[in-house]
Amino acid sequence: MPDDSTPLRTPVSEGPAAPAILPPSVLLVAMSYWPEPAGSAPMMTDLATAFAAAGTDMTVLTARPNYPGQAIYDGYADGAEDRRTVNGVRIERLLTIPPKGGGMKARLIHEGVLHAGFLAARARGRVAPHKAVLSLCPSIFSVAVADRFRAPGGRHIAIVHDIQSGLAGALGMGGGAALKAIQAVERTALNRADGIVVLSEAMADVLRDLGVRRPITVIPPHVDADAVRPLPRPEGQPPTVLYSGAFARKQGLDQVLEMARHLHALRPDARVLMRGQGGLEEELKAQAKAMALPNVEFAPLIPSDRLGEGLAEGDVHLVPQRPEGAAFAMPGKAVTILAAGRPFVCTCLPGSALDRLGTEIDAFRRTPPDAPEAMAQAVAELLNDPARSAAMGRRGRAWVEGNASRSAVLARYAALLLGDDAA
Q1: N or C: which end of the chain has fewer CB within 10 A?
Q2: Distance from first CA to last CA of the chain, Å, rounded?
């Protein structure tokens, strides 16, 4: 198996000393991983490379990359990249059929084919059982399958980034029977894990209401705070409001276009840059064209080795989300923006994870969901007050360094895998 001496769009930076006690080997079972640039992949990639850099024998069992464009990336479809070691992490990839249209049936085919491949890899000995296993939801099937890779006496920790039954119900995907079936799978799979990690207390409450009785630990989304750090804005660019990420239904991006219309009246010199890709890309572009928005630009996602540079383009960032799913997911992009020392405007409900964090650190503005005029006003106020924006950026960066850095999170995951549920 080849071992790359230089990273491929996944920079590994130096950071604080790693925890003294680490599992000798760890397996991560996850649908999303490098080189996917959005969703959970960057966070899982950073966690895996952090373990590897600290001396752990790290293996990742994952899909051929396909998110957020819903198509297998160039160079991966023929299986030539199915076994590779990158940044010290052994990556084992399996076939999948990317979902087209985002419906329940397409997602089940996508996840079913992939996880059948995971089980086949286990049966054939391609990936051996491990004493320390991490799994990522989505998909809940990854959590269920990961249990088969746990060696006798080992530990399996499930990382829940999305509560799939909650998101599916909130976004109107599938009928009542389908949702009950997903809830049953979630409850069963999570109760077989040794521990569960969620991104917020709100998510922990939802899981407990679902009937999950295993120990739940809240670990916020993390970021490599050495690789993503405050940089000066590019010279000569207009005031820029940046959305960067997946063009997917749960982001509620229609309200961003409406926000842009209101913002043009408040700050006609500002542009709204929408950088991303996904199933809604053509729909959003058509909608922006129909609205004749002069201040909206679309661009592809930036390579991960230029992430900090790309984030610096945004004077103010946007973190929109559909209100129905706010309790079932915590946007990791929020922490990455804070690490870059930039303020953002988000949509959230009172008591949600983002609302609680905003009260704690005062590093971003919160507006009600589906209130694009209020969002535009908040954006304009930040653009009009650079000193306030800079102060918010400094507070956000300080919070990341103390709570969501790679070293802090690595220590907590290591403790959970070694049996310390008080991590």
Answers
A1: N
A2: 35
CATH class of 240-403: alpha beta
pTM: 0.77
25-222+405-417: CATH topology: Rossmann fold (3.40.50)
Q: What is the pLDDT of residues 332-347, one digit of tens each?
A: 899 999 999 999 999 9
Q: Which two tokens stand for residue 142?
A: 């990854």
Q: Which band of pLDDT confidence, cut at 50, 70 and 90, is reported for residue 6?
A: very low
Q: In the Cβ-directed half-sphere of 247, how many Cα atoms lie within 13 Å? A: 23
Residue that the structure tokens 């961003």 belong to: 256
Portions of the chain given CATH number 3.40.50.2000:
25-222+405-417, 240-403
The average pLDDT across 34-58 equals 93
Q: In what order do the strands lie in the sheet with 344-347?
A: 296-299, 271-277, 240-246, 316-319, 344-347, 365-367
Q: Are 223 and 400 in contact (CB under 8 A)?
A: yes
DSSP 8-class letter at 404: S
DSSP string, 20-77: S---SEEEEE-S--TT--STTHHHHHHHHHHHHHTT-EEEEEEEPP-TTTTSPPTTTT
pLDDT in tens, 305-340: 888 999 999 999 999 988 766 656 678 899 999 999
